[in-house]
Write a structure and sequence with these properties.
With 154 residues, the chain is α/β, with parallel strands linked by helices. The protein has one domain: 3-Layer(aba) Sandwich (Collagenase (Catalytic Domain)), CATH 3.40.390. It is 44% helix and 21% strand.
Length: 154
């Protein structure tokens, strides 16, 4: 079973962590994630703009915040495998939810569907990859029983 380890940067008073954790558990139960090793771990960090800007600059050369970063590790731990780390910027998630006119909860579930797909090796560098990833995100959102809206570019 894949377990999720959550950490929250500073105080994020309106973070719906219980809702997120419940929906992420549903997402990882989707058959497409059955290829994750049985005893695997995903590390999740919720951070603010300043931390995300530093990470995005260090790892992607972009000196700005972003909504999500996913790092694939597949690192053997003592009793499990660390699949990777999903880092979510709470400030950017709030802005994106407002811009898309959706709830913050919807935004978080979409972000996790996106990040989990990256852990499986999916990417969106080409138009074909982009379209395929969007199709899979839609499937995951439906699976988690969360309304999905058509989104623009990443």
């Amino acid at each position: 079973m894949t377990s999720i380890d959550y950490s929250v940067d500073d105080a994020v008073p309106d973070l719906p962590l219980e809702y997120i954790a419940t929906k992420v558990d549903v997402l990882v139960s989707h058959p497409m994630f059955s290829q994750f090793p049985k005893e695997s771990v995903i590390s999740v960090a919720f951070v603010h703009d300043s931390t995300m800007t530093e990470l995005n600059h260090s790892y992607r050369g972009k000196n700005q915040s972003t909504d999500i970063l996913t790092f694939v590790y597949n690192e053997l731990l003592e009793n499990s495998i660390l699949l990777g780390e999903i880092i979510v910027c709470t400030d950017q998630a709030k802005r994106d939810a407002q811009e898309e006119h959706i709830s913050l909860e919807q935004e978080y579930v979409w972000l996790f569907s996106h990040g989990l797909l990256h852990l499986l090796g999916y990417d969106h560098e080409t138009d074909e990859e982009f379209q395929h990833m969007r199709k899979l995100e839609l499937e995951l959102m439906k699976y988690a029983d969360v309304n999905y809206i058509e989104r623009g570019d990443y």
